[in-house]
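Journal club prep — side note

Before the paper discussion, L.F. wants everyone to see what a predicted structure for a comparable chain looks like in token form. Sequence:
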Amino acid sequence: MLLGKLAQPVCGLSKLPLPGGCRLFWGWLNAVFNKVDYERIQAVGPDRAASEWLLRCGALVRYQGYQKWQQDYNGLPTGPLGKYKIEAINATDSCIMYRGFDYLDGLEHVTEIKLQKCIYIQDECLQRLSETKNLQKSLLQLKIISCGNVTDKGIIALHKLTNLEYLYLSDLPGIREKETTVHILQQALPNLELELDLE
């Protein structure tokens, strides 16, 4: 990635004012990548704008009617406005964060989301996800894996995803009340298939 090559020399300088200056730089850059551009959403539509955001942050998207995952920002498909509808999101190792979740509001066809090793995903993100009206209708599968900032509070918030059929939870050290959390979800979503791989 060109940006990574440009940033390496900056982070390699020995005269950084603070230890961890490189980490601060990447945190700032990730925040910039997550800034919502409402004009862009209006200009190109919610699916295209969300695709740009997700790919910019290192996630993958799959479009309705296609098997291939889109991972190259520069290779985003072109065509008539609204032709490509996001059906699945794989945010493994991505830098998506709460700040960018407004991009999800206009997505009407997302049936599956995978959040794995997302260092910025926290309870507020899951709460925001579950309050997104379109996702309440369309989302069927959700996998949350190795997201260290997620706690019971965030998982319980998922009860608003009323059409959710499958939820996979793995390696979430912030979940401390597993039995209570599972019970609350099963009460709220009786048709939910819940698969756990938690210690």
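L.F.'s comment for the group: Confidence is low (pLDDT under 50) at residues 1-17. Keep this in mind when we get to the figures.
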